[in-house]
């Protein structure tokens, strides 16, 4: 059972968090703050003061607001966590940066590269921390997989498979499937699959082949093959229409890594070597088990707090360049598919 | 435990088999003949009379030959099974057809579409049975999967995943990796993955994206994305360089099918429905378990014998059109990759 160690606890000073949004993900995030010492539940902003107060009561926040600017001024948080529908991110991120406040914004942080470039320029101008909430990157199982990959434990990476597919009921979180909310399956769940490809292959793919289905102007299902030089590839899926195997696999010349059960918030990483004695077999050589508490946001929360406390302007684990790589790729796919957002230029 | 039933046994008259080849696969095939009543081990042809005699003794064949024509004339088999390196298939198949003998030839039966079209024309001219040995098609688990797919048990098929990857030791069956023997990973193992795509999608793909690695003029690794209309796709692998998950998966609009443990000779088919109560869950609704005896060639053997006894000219389960579809696709990929065989025109 992974908890923050005594040593880490001592090192962790208090950081005042302001949460924006009172939905499902904001609630999970707030719950996980409980497991990070020094994470102060300072303030929450909701679409109404009633919703904000309910959330504050439920999760133990000190102050409630229905106006974001007022929260920034009154509560003076060290960092804000933005967890609202996609198309509302830009305005809130820019407002926080303008106020000189550090920002962690849910993925996908920006609707398009145009927005993201403006956010990054603003963060640099203001000298504050900005990060997209790709929480996956901070799970110990993912860190272990990266460590194995970078140490050459599976040799050269040849193939990455990651599929995040769910079967949405007709009434399931409608905004996530709507172009009006700058959403769709690729940017809601497919970006996690993309993040796996980026862990396996650091360069830009040579080309991308895709199939997709659209519903109400946004993609509800897509599958991608990212092609890299030297016979390397990634098979990726982001879907609201099929329930896929939730493990990600990295095949290398010498072995493979499996991240699971759910690769986007994995509790396990396994390293296998190809078996010399049998052309079809593999041997488990190392396992990391991490039956973490609650939802697992604590790893991201602790990382952001460490960055903020050290005055860093971006994360070394999930730098802004990584966000740019992702949004440029989703921009080009959306263009190909004809998925346009109101904020597209 | 699946065995041939009493009823089937009564129906099965004797069929005289002539086996060509004394290697690993021919041996497995001979072993499986034991489990099909009426399958007479009439004759075997080897590259030398010594090898043929050893094989005949080991597997209980009546006659041994080092000359194929002599076997046809002397032993008068009802059907020959050809299990020799790829580049030798054409000459032997044509000789058997010329002699008016029914033919089952190991996959890949022909080096290219040009050869296959000539084989098919010859078989029709002679009025004899011809089939490529895609043994996978005859396993009860595969038949069950086809039945589910065709009955709409998973709704419209959206995605197929099939990877046949093994890690070849440097000294592993060299001819299988050589262009001189009309071989390579795509045609040795990748064709099984292709066969899964063909079970899921009956039409020709709109386009194919691929990555590949070459060794000594033949492909040693490739991954393919077959794109079909309406956002449908197949992710396929054929490799001598990575050991992949050996299960094939068919995702549909309403559920999924898993074929395993090894999808090319599966002992199990499982049908799952997407779970209404949880967007990420599935419920197992039906399983076929088939812990078959020996290597599993008995299903193909029994099918071919039934065809021969009924005077059929081709299999309804694996018709020659299916072989043409496969070889046309591998022809076009080889052309793209620059993998040329001596017999290519």
TrEMBL record, chains A, B:
Gene3D superfamilies: Dihydrodipicolinate Reductase, domain 2 (3.30.360.10), NAD(P)-binding Rossmann-like Domain (3.40.50.720). It comes from the Bacteria. Keywords: Oxidoreductase. Coiled coil: none annotated. Belongs to the Gfo/Idh/MocA family. One of its GO terms (molecular function) is oxidoreductase activity. Residues 16-133 form the Gfo/Idh/MocA-like oxidoreductase N-terminal domain. Residues 143-257 form the GFO/IDH/MocA-like oxidoreductase domain. InterPro entries: Gfo/Idh/MocA-like_OxRdtase_N (IPR000683), Gfo/Idh/MocA_domain (IPR050984), GFO_IDH_MocA-like_dom (IPR055170), NAD(P)-bd_dom_sf (IPR036291). This is Oxidoreductase, NAD-binding domain protein. Pfam families: GFO_IDH_MocA, GFO_IDH_MocA_C3. It comes from Christensenella minuta.
